[in-house]
Amino acid sequence: MLSLDSPIANPTSPARFPLRSALAAFFALLAVALLARCASAPPPREHDEIVAAGRSFHTGTQVVLWHDQGGYDAYQTQKRFKLDEPPDGQLRYRKVRADLPAELEANVTARGWRLDELRAIVRVFVLHFDVAGTSRQCFKILQDVRNLSVHFLLDTDGTIYQTLDLQEQAHHATYANKVSVGVEIAHPGCYPRQRHPDMMRWYEQDEGGWRMKFPAFLGETGVRTKGFVPRPAQNEGLSGAIHGTQYWQLDFTEQQYHALARLCAALHRVFPRIRLDAPRGEDGAVLTTNLPPEQLLGFEGIVGHFHVQRNKTDPGPAFQWERLLREARELSQ
Questions:
Q1: Does 119 map to a domain?
Q2: In whole angstroms, what separates CA 28 from the centre of its chain?
Q3: β-pairing, 238-242 with 245-249?
Q4: Domain tally, the chain
Q5: pTM of the model as a whole
Q6: What CATH code is carried by the domain that includes residue 182?
Q7: Band of pLDDT at residue 85, cut at 50, 70 and 90
Q8: Terminal alpha carbon distance of the chain
């Protein structure tokens, strides 16, 4: 029997209720863990991101990455559209960019790229037209037929597909590969005369003017915007000289210019050495022929494939260089 001055046990002390105390501690630890996880978790994808050295950068336009559903994956060592064939084991890209300083090459080979290292190397953005008409057909040719690669595909509806991290050296522009990233813009190409038969199988006219049509051999087009009708931004055939030879071409779509300007502005932020300008002559106009290799490799900015190689004409005489550069600059401010 306790005396009146004996200490009385606290009815709510941990000694009397060990289970309640343990549960409280467990839930407190769980709350801390959840808060830490929320603080460290990456933000949700907005599906406008491009990837360089494992880091994401927003563009403000739709981007489908290589690991997204419906994406085009140039890391695969097999054909994309002939899955019944065994993997061929061939890389369509180079893991370590060529002609790096010895110490940098050793570091990149051992641990991968850091963004600051990549920024010191990448300085050229090469614009191609794919002469395939759609990004799906372009990737089919690159991946399944030619064992080549390019970092971006730009479809007729303005959808951008990224096929590789920008740290990789894609095979798209011969000697310029080592310092560049590239984009294949879906387009039928340019031709040596107006209404060339190869050109006209891709185009027809209706009450709205010129429009692209997709030849039957394509089968599925892969264009993500259902019912999209690609129309040239300028509703007329345009001609101009490339390497001194006259070519005819219909323009790219408004949606492609919109997306490409945003991609250029984003690349300039990722790689400041890619200036928002193109090679120019003494008159200030964008050059329409190739540069000597040493001059091209010393250039920092946006080039056409024809600036790299004399046997190339892309992106062609209809391409609106000044519009693209102006819009990209405005977006980057």
A1: yes
A2: 44
A3: antiparallel
A4: 1
A5: 0.88
A6: 3.40.80.10
A7: confident
A8: 85
